[in-house]
């Protein structure tokens, strides 16, 4: 036994997203989303959808119809929490309607009821890498101030409908990634100017704050957080110029949490806007709205990188491009593996905000092999997750308040960045390949039983490394 002690109410679980698992494309009144026109993933071409065409995300793993089976498997592992998202276009197909689509609301009623049947707390993201395509085509995405009102209306409708069942909410998934993938984040073209992107981000930050206000008004006992892509960067060397560059790069993504957790734009961003001739259109009431701050900070963590004041070759991991760290190994997809970085990031965020933290994504994408006997021996995944969870325990010993850990993709799903099935994260294998072939059969991997034991022992079964 390791003598690692997590809090007794620690929320062990997993995380999924509607557009990567649900399928049921255009069924039951669902409208087109930005994700639906990105069949190759976040950085792929944006396509027009024609009647009768299809892509791998249209069915995904058909969670829409398989969710009772999948929730039962999560319960078998002992999940205390499941992070998922609501597809905005299931509730408002175009995004600007007054009346909600009842079929969409009813689906999430059934889903949340199924989770609660097993004592699994929902943690629900309002917008996870998708928004109604109609709002992009007819209004200009988040570049249009009117979208703030459409989002607030959507948020209020779901809070009113599900507030008795869902007490934990997040506003925008990896909100800082809009700087790197603006179509996915704010519905703007990839080549949009920095000024246009930051204006859209301003609208999104105001909308996030208004959703926080609405949650506090409409969800008894509710808590709502933000969600960051944790892109921690180290100086490549001890040169002061590299240290300064790392500080600036980290501020570039922590700025989002500074606004959401502190309720105002930080001074360093005012300088950034001046230096880049960016003048935000801030209307009366915007700054007051931003004072509705989040209750906790949530984030994804997959890798770290380095920052250098001199030109260096960069490699992409997840959405970000960073200078590789010469001291770290990388995954099959080139994402550098840094378990200690998770402890560092937890301490950095705790010291900066003094708000509870929730690790809502972390995991290893890898190519799994189904053996002749049907088993999947993913010891590499177990090793990765064990190392990261040991560092979470160390951060808790450091005094960091950590609410929970929902590993990414507890069941195999469509990857966001590349739209592949072969990039697998799950404890549960789904029989489907990158071409869309397969039976969709669910199969427990070796990591399923490992995570089951971690949860059963509240982390005591973890191996110190």
UniProtKB/TrEMBL annotation:
UniProt family annotation: Belongs to the glycosyl hydrolase 1 family.
PANTHER family listed in its UniProt record: 6-PHOSPHO-BETA-GLUCOSIDASE ASCB-RELATED, GLYCOSYL HYDROLASE
Name of this chain's protein: 6-phospho-beta-glucosidase
Annotated transmembrane regions: none
Keyword set, alphabetical order: Glycosidase, Hydrolase
GO MF annotation list: beta-glucosidase activity
Active site: 361 (nucleophile)
Aminoacyl-tRNA synthetase is among the record's keywords: no
GO cellular component, one term: cytosol
Pfam families, sorted: Glyco_hydro_1
Gene Ontology annotations of biological process type: carbohydrate catabolic process
